[in-house]
Design a protein that fits this description.
about 575 residues, about 75% helix
Length: about 575
């Protein structure tokens, strides 16, 4: 049972992903005020030349007015470009000059609000949007901007009001629906999220770009709800109406993949790349599908080579091919490509990471460790950090791993992932007091962190600490559909004198993770504790015959012998 819960197992990995994705629907991320300002230059564009004059005088006036409009638009787009480039000082100077020249132009106040938002001055941004609305009460961009600001401030009723005002001006304003969907999601009203997005889809039918934007966001929502079949239906309908549209086909291919209809996805992707001869992304996606199938290696590599011909120095295509060659154990070719990437993009760590992967595949651990450390020095990130630590652990260099993690933690003392990794390494060193300190550090910042609760509960159970059951119960309450979490709680219940309750939880754990041999063993122990010898023997004999190693196999065989002897 040693360190049973210290590593992130498959079930826990899925759990972690689930926790991350469920934290926010993030529909409002689709509301890009910079993009909307670019595409909805309404107030200035709608200024019409006067028709009160006639003849040449009128024509001259029209020309002068049009010149003024063009000048305003040019200045506006120049300021917007500065904002996009994050040149905030230059943008402020430009916008101030524009407002001085035209203090009654609402779009210039929208620009000022964008600037203030980028400067994180939300109060000033709100005032600028309000000024735009004083000049023009039906300014959609100002309503959307205020909806976004109030949503981020947690003022959901205000945000909803602003979004609805935008829709009352134009019922096809897609971004307003996305903001309303985010509001409903924050209110835990999933049925309303779906209703809002389906209404948006209905309103924008006929505008394929807007339809696709809505369908993509519905896809995010249905993925969180584990209802991928719904997005497949919408995608199929889209392609029926736009049978040769590349964007529609792309959406359909994605929906087919998430619904595990890979043969259909292959057909759709082939249609796409036949239509789009210079398309790299879908070639690589098709190559990925084929790379997962035995016997399709040549075709997958051919697609990767085609992508490289289209764009010889595309880092994504080169990296994907390198990774695939590593998977095929064609290490010399993979190493050559990794070196090419490193030479082409010396400021990126991609080439070095791929070189490390080649060495790892070749089991040249010292070389892999050295090059990963080079990459980490150039561009520190948790993924590379933990790869280095895992390599150190594999080489029995646990003290060096602790030192390396401590150095990273000094720079970012509230990084829960580093705390978690340190805790697991300390458990491998049998230093439970230090492991406990790091789990507590996580819980001090994140009291509901399921992984920390689960692992600390397991650690306490090894010490017969009565707090174990309380922590395990909290983790289980927060994540009742994780087999690993249920296993911890059920096993602790059995060990702390509640065998009947523990048996119920462990039966659920096995149903959630039937292939986990350690959980099967714990269920056998629970049956034995509940005087159901036959059930326990049935599980233990199956584990013994399977011939598969697992961390507690020795204990399982010992219990089997004991039960047979009685």
């Amino acid at each position: 049972m040693k360190n049973k819960k210290t590593m992130t197992e498959n079930g826990l990995a899925v759990l972690a992903i689930g926790l991350l994705t469920s934290s926010s629907l993030a529909m409002s991320a689709t509301y890009d005020p910079l993009k909307l300002q670019q595409n909805n230059f309404n107030a200035i564009d709608q200024i019409a030349p006067s028709n009160n004059e006639s003849g040449s005088a009128s024509s001259m006036l029209d020309s002068l007015q049009q010149a003024e409009i063009n000048n305003k638009k040019s200045n506006y787009l120049e300021a917007l470009s500065l904002l996009k480039q994050n040149k905030l000082k230059e943008a402020r100077d430009k916008i101030s000059a524009l407002l001085k020249q035209a203090p009654a132009e609402p779009e210039f106040y929208n620009l000022q609000a964008l600037l203030e938002t980028l400067e994180k001055n939300t109060f000033a941004a709100e005032q600028s949007y309000q000024k735009a609305l004083q000049i023009n009460p039906i300014n959609i961009l100002a309503h959307l901007g205020l909806a976004k600001l109030t949503l981020e401030a947690g003022e959901l009723d205000k945000a909803k009001d602003y979004a609805n005002k935008a829709l009352s001006i134009n019922e096809k304003t897609v971004s307003a629906y996305f903001l309303l969907a985010d509001i409903a999601y924050k209110q835990k009203n999933n049925s309303e999220v779906e209703t809002v997005l389906l209404k948006a889809h209905e309103k924008v039918k006929g505008n394929i770009s807007a339809e696709i934007e809505v369908i993509k966001n519905l896809g995010k929502f249905y993925a969180l709800q584990n209802k991928p079949e719904k997005i497949l239906f919408l995608s199929e309908d889209l392609v029926k109406r736009y049978p040769d549209n590349s964007q529609a086909l792309s959406v359909l291919a994605g929906a087919q993949i998430v619904n595990d209809k890979k043969i259909l996805a292959e057909q759709t992707l082939r249609q796409l790349i036949n239509q789009e001869k210079q398309d790299i992304n879908h070639r690589l996606l098709l190559a990925k599908l084929l790379s997962e199938q035995p016997g399709k290696e040549k075709e997958a590599l051919k697609l990767m080579d085609e992508a490289s011909v289209i764009e010889p120095n595309n880092p994504q295509a080169l990296a994907f091919k390198t990774a695939y060659l590593i998977k095929l154990q064609r290490y010399p070719e993979a190493s050559e490509l990794a070196s090419k990437i490193d030479n082409l993009f010396p400021k990126l760590v991609l080439g070095k990471l791929l070189k490390g992967d080649v060495f790892l595949g070749e089991k040249k651990l010292d070389k892999a460790l050295a090059i990963y450390q080079q990459a980490y020095k150039l561009q520190p990130n948790d993924k590379v950090l933990f790869t280095i630590v895992d390599l150190m652990s594999a080489q029995k260099k646990l003290p060096e791993a602790v030192k390396f993690l401590d150095q990273a933690l000094e720079k970012n003392p509230k990084n829960s992932a580093i705390h978690f990794k340190l805790a697991t390494v300390y458990q491998q060193l049998n230093n439970n007091s230090q492991a406990e300190n790091h789990y507590k550090a996580i819980l001090a910042e994140q009291p509901e962190n399921v992984l920390a609760l689960n692992n600390l509960a397991w650690l306490y159970s090894q010490q017969n600490n009565p707090q174990a059951i309380e922590l395990a119960k909290k983790a289980y309450t927060n994540s009742p559909e994780s087999g690993a979490i249920a296993d911890t709680y059920g096993y602790i219940l059995v060990k702390q004198g509640q065998p009947a309750e523990g048996l119920t939880v462990l039966e659920k754990a096995v149903s959630l993770a039937p292939a986990a041999n350690d959980i099967q063993f714990h269920l056998a122990e629970a049956y034995a504790a509940n005087n159901n010898r036959n059930k326990a023997l049935e599980i233990l004999e199956t584990l013994a015959k399977a011939g598969q190693d697992f961390s507690e196999k020795k204990a399982a065989l010992s219990l089997l012998d004991k039960l047979k002897a009685n």
